[in-house]
Amino acid sequence: MNIQTTAATYAIETRNLNVYYGDFHAVKDVNLRIHKNKITALIGPSGCGKSTVLRCFNRMNDLIPSARIEGDVLFHGKNIYDPDVDPVQVRRRIGMVFQKPNPFPKSIYDNVAWGAKINGFKGDLDALVQESLERAALWNEVKDKLDASGYSLSGGQQQRLCIARALAVKPDIILMDEPTSALDPIASLRIEELMWELAQDVTIIVVTHNMQQAARVSDYTAFFTVTPDRTGYMEEFGETPQIFTTPASKITEDYITGRFG
Amino acid sequence: MTSYFPEGDELQKFVKRRRQKGLIWRSLFLLATTLGVIVLMVLLVTIINDSMGYAAVAYKIAPDELVVGFYRGMMLDAPRAQTYTDLDDLARALAGNPNAVGLLDPAAFQAHADILRQVQVAGGDLSGVVVAVSKDNDWVQNVTILELTPLFTVAETWSDVRPGWPDAPVHRALPEAGSPALDAFVTQVYGDDPAEQPIEALLAMLAQHRSAGALRQFVAEKPLALRTQEEVLAILEEQVLEPTVVETWSLYESLFDRAAIKEAAAGMPDAHLEFRRWITWDFITSPQSSQPEYAGVRTAILGSLWVVFITLIFAVPVGIGAAIYLEEYGSGSWLDQLIETNINNLAGVPSIIYGMLGLAVFVRALGPLTSGAIFGVGDPTTSNGRTILSAGLTLGLLILPIIIINAREAIRAVPQAFREASLGLGATKWQTIWHHVLPNAIPGILTGSILAISRAFGETAPLIVVGASTAIFLDPSGPFSKFTTLPIQIYQWTARPQAAFQNLAAAAIIVLLALLLALNAFAIYLRNRYAVRY
C-alpha cells in the first residue's frame, strides 16, 4: 500500500474504534474526526483511554503484545490497520512526542538527522537539521553546540529537540502524549506557543491532563471518560470554546468545572 | 493526646537500637570483604612463594669446567708448546729462547725477573699470571687480549699475531695442566661462560664431548652455517652440560632459612646452589619439555589463545543473537519460556557434562569436520577430532548460557523510551535494534562476555574429556591442531613427582593470571571505548 497525500478536510478519523488488552475492553466505539492543521486535545480522567486512542493513530499499540484493535482508523481514506499497511510507513507520516523527553544518547545534530537518514532523505542534511530546529524554536539556543549531547540540554529544550526530531521526517500529523507533564510552567508555555506555530502546517493531536492547557492551545477538544467497568469511551467532541463554555453533556460539565476527575 | 510513636527516652533508645542493627550488618559486610581479600592474598603469596627460590643444580660437566678445559686443551696441544712441572725450569728455558713466550705465576716471575721480561697486556694486566718473554726478545712490548688468543693457540709465527713482528716460529712455555696460573690465564683471556663463546668454539666443544654420530645428526637437521650461536649453546647445554635440578626450596625458605639450605646443599656433591626465578622469558617462550630445566609454556599459551579465540567467535555472536531474539522478537509464548528456563538451567550444569557432550558431538559425530579431514588440511595424528576446534566449540557451548543471560539483561536495561522514539520516527524494528538497542546494551554485553571468556580461559575438566594432549611439544598451527591449554599444563605439572615441576606449575599459574588480567584489561578498554555515553 502506498499512503497518498490527498486534500481532505480530516487528517485522520476513527470509526467504531475498540481496543482490548487481552480480555480487558479498554476503549469502546470511538468515532473521532481530526481536522487538518488544527490542534485537537484529548482530555479526561486517568484511565479513560485517551493515550490508548492516541497510540492507535500511529500503531504504537502494536508494541504491546496483548493489544487488539477493532474498527477503522482512516488516514487519507485508508484504514491503517488493514493487513497490507506497513506500520513503518504510518509512523513515518504520523510522528510522536512522548510524555518524558527522550532524546537519543547522541549529539543534538544526530538526534535530528537520524530519522531523516533512515528514511532515505537525499537532500541537504545540514539544512534539514537547521530548518527542523528552527521550527522547534531551538535553533538559536543550540546552533553553536550541535555536537553536544542531547542530554546536555534542559528538560524543556530536550522536549523541543524531540519535536524537532519528529519534524525532521516531515510528518502530516504529530501526536503528543502529555508533552509538558514533566516540564515546569515556563517551559510548558514555550511548548504551547510552539504548538501554535506548528499548527500552521501540521495537524497536532495532544493528550493532556491540564485543562487550562487544553483550553489555551486547542481548536477542538475530545472529552473521554470511563464506564463503571473501567472501559473508556468518548463522551463529547467539539470546538474547544463550546466544550469549555456550553458542554452538551452533564458529565463533561462536571469534569470541566472540577466536580469530578 | 496519646501518641502511638515512641517519645523521649524511649525514642532515643529505639533510634540507637536501629542504628546498632545497621552497624552490625555493616561490620559483617566489611568482614566478608576482608575475608575475600585475605583469601586472594594467601593464594597469590602461595603461588609467588613457589615461583622463585633456591635450587640445587647438578651438571654432568660444570659450564666453567667445560670452557676452561677446552681452551686449556687447545693451548697444551698448540704447536711447539712445552709444559714444565717446575716453573724454574720453565723460566730458564724461556730465557734461553727469544722466540718463546711463556706463562708463570707472579712469584715465579719475580724470582727470575733478571732473565725475563713481562709483556704488558693492553687494558690492564692479568691477575695471578704473568705473560713473559726472554730478555733477548726485542720486539714484544705489549699485546692486546685479542692477540693473546692466537699467540697461545693457533699462531705459527710471530708475524701471524701482529704483521710487524718477525717471521719467526712461536715457541710456548706453559705450566702443566691443573696449575693455578694456567687456569687463571684461560679464565681471564677466554672466559669461562659458555654463553660468551663464539659459535666455532662451541661446536668444537660439542665435537669433543659428543660422538661423531650425534654430531652428524645435529648437522643433518640443519646445516651448521644456518645455526645461530644460541641454538648451538642450547644443544650444548642439553647434551653436554645436562643440568638437573636436584632439589628446590620455596621463596620463604630461601629468605629466612638459608643456613639449612646451605647445609642440605653441602650434602649433595656436584650440585651447586643458585637462586632461581622459575618464571623467566625463556619459560614463557619455550615449548613443553620432559625436563624441568627446559620446559616452558609457549605451547600451552598458544593453545589457550587458540581455544579461547574459537570460543569467542562462536559463543559471542551466537549468544548475542539468541539474546536479541528472545528479548526483542520473542513473543513470550510457552515455547519461549521453555527455552528461557532451559538456558538458565544450562548455566548451572557441571562443566564436565559439557565435556561429555563435546566428546560425543564434536569429537565423535563431527570428527571428520573438527579434525579438518574433509577439508584435507588435518594433521594425520589428529584425525580423531581431538582438536582446538572441538575444544573451542565445547567451551563455546559452556559459556553460551552465561553470555545469553547477561546480554538479555543488558538489552532489557535499554530504556523502552529509546525504542518508542525510534519506531515513532518510522524506523524498522531492525534499525531500532541496530542503532539504539545494541549500542546502549554493548557495555553490559561486553561485561558478561568478559566474565564468560575468563571462565573459558580457566576451564580444565571439559577439555580433559574432549581430549587435550597432556604432553605436546609442537605449537598449534590452526584450528585443526592438537592442543594443550595453560590450566591443563598446570594440572599435569602439579601431578608430577619431581620438585621442580611444582615450581613450574606455580610459574605457569602466574602466567595464566597475567594473561587473564591482560585479556580483561583489553576487554574493559574496548568497553570504555565503545560505550561513548551521552
Description:
The complex is a heterodimer of chains A (261) and B (534). Chain A is an alpha/beta fold and 261 residues long. Chain A has a single domain, classed as Rossmann fold. Chain A contains 10 helices and 10 strands. In chain A, the strands form 2 sheets. In chain A, strands 6-7-8-3-9-10 form a 6-stranded mixed sheet, sandwiched between helices. In chain A, β1 and β2 form a beta hairpin. Chain A is globular, with a radius of gyration of 18 Å. Chain A starts with 9 loop residues before the first strand and ends in a 5-residue tail after the last helix. Chain B has 3 domains: 52 residues, no CATH class; 127 residues, D-Maltodextrin-Binding Protein, domain 2, CATH 3.40.190; 233 residues, Orthogonal Bundle (MetI-like fold). Chain B has 534 residues and is α/β, with parallel strands linked by helices. Chain B contains 23 helices and 10 strands. Chain B starts with 7 loop residues before the first helix and ends with a helix. The interface between A and B is medium-sized, with 31 and 22 residues.
CATH superfamily of chain A: P-loop containing nucleotide triphosphate hydrolases
Please tell me the overall pLDDT of chain B: 86
CATH level-3 fold name of the largest domain in chain B: MetI-like fold
Percent in strands of chain A: 25-35%
Number of strands of chain B: 10
SSE class of chain A: alpha/beta
Largest sheet: number of strands, sense, barrel closure of chain B: 5 strands, mixed
- The strand order across the widest sheet of chain A is 6-7-8-3-9-10
The CATH class of chain A, by name, is Alpha Beta
The number of helical segments of chain A is 10
Q: Work out the oligomeric state of the chains in this entry.
A: heterodimer
The proportion of residues in beta strands of chain B is 5-15%
> Biggest interface in this structure?
A-B, 31 and 22 residues
- Can you identify the CATH superfamily of the largest domain in chain B? MetI-like
Domains of chain B, number: 3
